[in-house]
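Please review the protein record below. Let me know how this chain folds according to its tokens.
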Amino acid sequence: MSSTVSSLPLIALVDVNNFYVSCERLFNPSLAVRPVVVLSSNDGCIVARSDEAKALGFPMGDPWFRWRMLARRSGTIALSSNYELYGDMSRRIMRLASGFSDGQEIYSIDECFLSWHPFPSGRSATRTGEAIRADLERWTGLPVKIGLAGTRTLAKLATHWARTRPGSVLAWPELSPEEQAEILCRTPVSALWGIGPNRARRLGQDGIRNAADLVCCDPGRIADRFDRPLAQTVHELQGRPLFGSHSSPPPARQSILSSRSFGSPVTDPTLLADSLCVYMGRAAEKLRGDGASALTVGIWLENRQRGRSRPVREWRLQGLARPTSDSRSLIAVALDLLASLHEPGLPYTKSGVYLGDLVPAGAGSGNLFDHPDAIGREDRLSRLVDEIHRRFGPRGLGYGAGGLAHPPAWHPKRDFRSPAYTTDWHHLPLVRA
């Protein structure tokens, strides 16, 4: 087994263990080693589980009411999703992780790829991963596991198996051929990145049941028999990077959605407008974070009508004269669309906003009547609000009523939510000496 990696590109995947639960345990140590589940909006479904809850059989995505009796018998703690806390802790760990390598690609709220081009000659990948893990855990308190390899697919695979290692770090190039073969044989194709149940079933019908079977396949045959993305997965398992590169960033988002189910049905158009103001403010902030502007704005409302077993979703879309990321402009369009969509007396159960036809900020032709100074003021104001949100939390300043003063009737139910420890001054713990 080699102790160092040659000067070739190397990719690490940093993954926070049971992210939502780990964030809760960080500020509430009494939850340590107890079974914990985190619930979705309106406390409807299980969206995160501690290892102890997994061992008890709590399934991901199932409605919570089906498992309340087991929770009572087993002493399992149920918590509402604390999105403010999770988002802030994600920003912290991603910002810290970005300083360890040449490049970073944030993959999800609790995962990011780090890359070195090339990896320094004579340096141990395992020790590098252990140093990164130790620093992240010391600076944030969150437990992480890290897999290192020459491709993203192998890094994902290495991270999956890193949990079985004492240091929660696994460097694929530093494993012996026998160790690599054993891991490939023990990994079902359904556990590989990008392979879902349907595709795994089709592969099984062809006798391809684990990663060892797949890595021996000819990528060209796989492309003909299945599709090109699966062929790219084979290339990556064989050590040839195809998904992303240091020189070309990941594809930009094509659209942004923001929505929540209401805590109780809403008929008041003023409350519907409040919800759209909040959702559009969040969507516009994501838009600016991506360095993009939108050319299409949409909203939708869901209602339950008599005689229908499922909610009815109704849409309105509108194109813009010029691309923008200004929250006030986007909210104004959303409220105009609401006026044409709302039907008095209908009990609405959900609302949402959509931003589409995204282009890089500054791209696209302007309006003949637009004044450059006005556009500049829009951008400065929006970014000032973003900065206030980052420093003082999303309730510090908003547009319109927006439900800022008190949680309104349309807010999702979060009966078991923990405090917003890091984003709300009123939730800071008190210490008496």
Notes: The first helix runs from residue 19 to 27. The first strand starts at residue 10 and ends at 16. The chain has 14 helices and 13 strands. The radius of gyration is 24 Å.
